[in-house]
Specification:
Helices cover 15% and strands 29% of the residues. It is of the alpha/beta class. It has one domain: Hexapeptide repeat proteins (UDP N-Acetylglucosamine Acyltransferase, domain 1, 3 Solenoid), CATH 2.160.10.
């Protein structure tokens, strides 16, 4: 039986500057963001901008949204991100205009290369185009683009990019039908 050393990770995945910024953000998140009253969307947008997020006009980010690194986040005008959403922004997350990300959804930009010793971390951006609805408890994998006008059904697992103006759902998520506006 051969022995394989699986603990070959030799250093941190992020710089000391990144880790310091995240520590400061965690402090601000805990004491100034998380417990702010629900209607104070401008206050939370201000805090996110201070930490480098690009936040549009009329954006509603609720107080119990968990954001890993605000400087990797962009949210377009009049979009809303509900309580319980996790934006695991180790890499870029770009959310368009008039987007709704419903409660409990998880957008994850980081993963590990399971074929390498030490499981090296890598990131791939998530892009959500304009006029998209991501329903409750959806998981979106790294590197996914959600096309304009797309609707992602509740509890879907989105492992690949979804086309524009489709209703998509499932585990894994697949396009089901055209989205027609009335």
């Amino acid at each position: 039986m051969s022995s394989v050393n699986v603990n070959t990770h030799t250093g941190p995945s992020f710089t000391i500057g990144n880790r310091t910024a995240r520590l400061l953000w965690e402090f601000v998140y805990l004491f100034l963001f998380r417990f702010s009253p629900k209607p104070l969307h401008p206050w939370r947008s201000f805090l996110l901008r201070v930490f480098g997020a690009k936040i549009g006009r009329g954006v509603h980010v609720y107080p119990k949204v968990k954001i890993w690194a605000p400087w990797n986040l962009s949210v377009g005008d009049y979009s809303g991100i509900a309580n319980g959403v996790i934006l695991y922004s180790q890499g870029r997350i770009d959310i368009g205009r008039y987007v709704v990300v419903s409660q409990g959804s998880h957008l994850c930009t980081g993963t590990h290369d399971y074929q390498l010793k030490g499981f090296s971390l890598y990131t791939r951006p998530i892009i959500i185009k304009d006029n998209v609805w991501v329903a409750a408890e959806v998981f979106i994998h790294p590197g996914v683009t959600i096309g304009e006008g797309c609707v992602i059904g509740a509890r879907s697992l989105v492992a690949s990019s979804m086309p524009a103006w489709k209703v998509c759902s499932g585990h894994p998520c697949k396009p089901l039908k055209e989205r027609v506006l009335k």
